Amino acid sequence: MPVAAAGPRILLKRLREVMAEPENAQNRLNKIASLIASNMIAEVCSIYVMRPGGVLELYATEGLNPSAVHKSKLRIGEGLVGTIAAEARPLNVQDAYAHPAFKYLPETGEEIYKSFLGVPLLRSGLTLGVLVVQNRASRLYTEDEEEALQITAMVLAEVIASGEFDEIVAAVDADVTHVRSHRIVGDSLADGIALGHVVLHEPRVVVTNLIAEDMHAEMARLDRAIAALQEWIETMVQGLDVPRGEHREVLETYQMFAHDRGWLQRMRDAVRTGLTAEAAVERVHSDNRARMLRQKDPFLRERLNDLDDLANRLLRILTGQANTAASSELPKDAILVARNMGPAELLDYDRQKLRGVVLEEGGSTSHVAVVARALGVPLVGQAQGVLDIVDTGDAIIVDGSGGEVHIRPSPDIEHAYAEKVRFYARRQEQYRALRDMPAATLDGERIALHINAGLLVDLPHLTESGADGIGLFRTELQFMISSAFPRMDQQVAHYRSILEAAQEKPVVFRSLDIGADKVLPYLSQAKEENPALGWRAIRMALDRPALMKLQLRALLKAAGGRELSVMFPMVAEVDEFRRAREILEEQREYLLARGHQLPVRIRVGSMIEVPALVWQLNRLMELADFVSIGSNDLVQFLFACDRGHPRLAGRYDPLSPALLSVIREIVHAGATHGVPVNLCGEMAGRPLEAMALLGLGLRSISMAPAAIGPIKAMILKLHAGQLTEYMAPLLELPEHSLRPHLMAFARDSGIPI
Ligand code: PEP
Ligand code: MG
């Protein structure tokens, strides 16, 4: 008695009729159970619904003893039904008794039924219950029958989750993962704490229209949507559109899945059974999500995640909801949750309402992290599995300082964090009070404090923080968020608006630092074995000078009548610096010859990020007007330690005698040649590290705007001369880090760290 291909279609039609009848929830379930039983020629059909405490309760049955309804209960993992719920996959057995998981429930009278087929009632990857059919004769159900039951289960899950079954849903909701509190520890990518409500960056589409009226029309809709999806991926692969910061690998996986015959075939088969196109996508997607939740292998899980993304996109195409949440109405305390996103996408959100961001991916050097820091929005990355357990509107706390995320926090946690936020705000208040005080140490050393910036949105921080200027303007950010290469006039306008917004405060522009993790969506770059050591920054600029010429000319024009400071990134030898400087000079002469207004003064600097330069300091200082230590990269290259590698994070300490000695040497060379030295890596924004830098003789540092307050508070209590004396012998120690010694100094001197 295999189910004919038309089987589910007829059943779906009948189910639609039952759903349209005015009935109460219980009667409707009873009718559905008997409908399924007769359609599948089964002697038994039972519906189990998940109740609080992970208990599956028999809610309706055709064939079993009716008095067992609401009495028979199985825990998740218990019996065949509990096993199906626990594993979220079907179970098809010829002889239920012989199965090791079988649990006998005497009140049901099921002992006479041998064959057993059960499927989970899944919705958005959650198990809402289990649907079972049984027959007396011992046999395995066919694949068609299994598929038919799964399709029915999908409709049933929708019925259960729909509003009219409130009393059931409430029970279900009380148990599933989506209502429990969760804490996820990820990476802290942008500081700060935010309490708010979840907004899914890519909203999930909930399919409610399940049963097709016209199968051929649905097939055509599905095919059109698949074609649109494939086209979208091709566009991205060819780099014609702004990707969401996806890496090539992800795109290639997308491409592979979007043409995967098995996936496409399964969706078409589902339409053939009588589902709408979106229900067919959801049907196949639901299986995938369930598989994903079971998957332990991180690589496979990742791939299934890609497939999950694609299915979601396909659903959005089908339902016409193609946009991200940025275009919808946001709550006033929105916390974005996404797998990943590009910097431009983050900038699309209303800053007034955006409180925090949580990403399943994202590293500290990712562009979105740089932008989040610039916006002052707390960000936690590497929050694994977060998308599996959040829903739109859930309460959520992002602790960007500790790298923690609390989902549906308990009142205690919420209270503790609200207190923490108040404390944070009070501290910010105190820092604001320091704003107009000069940053001078107790022994009268004036320290220049600058901010790092990269976008126009950063500029208000310059005034708010009371910083002396912009010590590092990462020009590549504008390029990264554009969909095409910024034209000369756009660049000029951008740089001019930065200089204007900075008023008279100095701005140090860094020429394009692209390559490695900083990719331009419209610039195709060959895959490299070691991108951090690859064709990047000044190497690219010198080999293909057109880009750099254009940028330098734009900077010279923008700074007409003002002072211009430019520096070059990733310089490994003095000769590179000299050549870059020559290109700048050529551009200056070019503009001069054409009567353009030029900067009143041009200062040209070099970043010191590659250790080789440390052995050429004297030559470099003779040629440079200033230097800036890029400690992020300098640490990476000094220790041969990937700065974005999660397992290596914290392995070497910037407060090691090695790095500190190198910095001291650079400071010393600068002093000898009268060349100003600045440091603009992340360590400048951390009070203990910044204190050590001042102990080494640095008098100019540049950091994220939010760090200015705490750093100034440290400076006001520091006696720099004493620290220099204290540190001199420490640098000779064979220690992993001088952190404990420096902590002791700060504590003994009452310096706030
Ligand atoms: C650095 O390397 O320290 C630096 C400031 O540059 P970036 O972080 O942009 O590489
Ligand atoms: Mg760098």
Question: Can you give me a brief rundown of this structure?
Answer:
The chain is an alpha/beta fold and 753 residues long.
Q: How many strands, what sense, and barrel or not for the largest sheet?
A: 8 strands, mixed
- For the termini, the CA-CA separation is 77 Å
Helicity, as a percent range: 40-55%
Extract low-pLDDT stretches.
Answer: 1-6, 169-177, 240-246
Bound molecules: phosphoenolpyruvate, magnesium ion
Q: How many individual helices?
A: 27
Derived from helix and strand composition plus strand pairing, the structural class reads alpha/beta
The count of β-strands is 22
Main-sheet strand order equals 7-14-13-9-10-11-12-8
Calculate Rg over CA atoms. Answer: 32 Å
The average pLDDT score comes to 87
- Portion of residues in beta strands equals 15-25%
Shape verdict: elongated
Would you write up a description of this structure?
By secondary structure, the chain is of the alpha/beta class. The chain is 44% helix and 16% strand. The chain has an eight-stranded mixed β-sheet with strand order 7-14-13-9-10-11-12-8. Strands 21-20-19-18-17-16-15-22 form an eight-stranded parallel β-sheet. A six-stranded antiparallel β-sheet has the order 3-2-1-6-5-4, with helices on both faces. A hairpin with a 3-residue loop joins strand 1 and strand 2 (55-62). Helix 6 (215-237) runs antiparallel to helix 8, helix 14 crosses helix 25 and helix 24 crosses helix 25. It starts with 6 loop residues before the first helix and ends with a helix. The model is unreliable at 1-6, 169-177 and 240-246 (pLDDT under 50). Bound molecules: phosphoenolpyruvate and magnesium ion. Magnesium ion is lined by residues 569, 609, 630, 632-633.
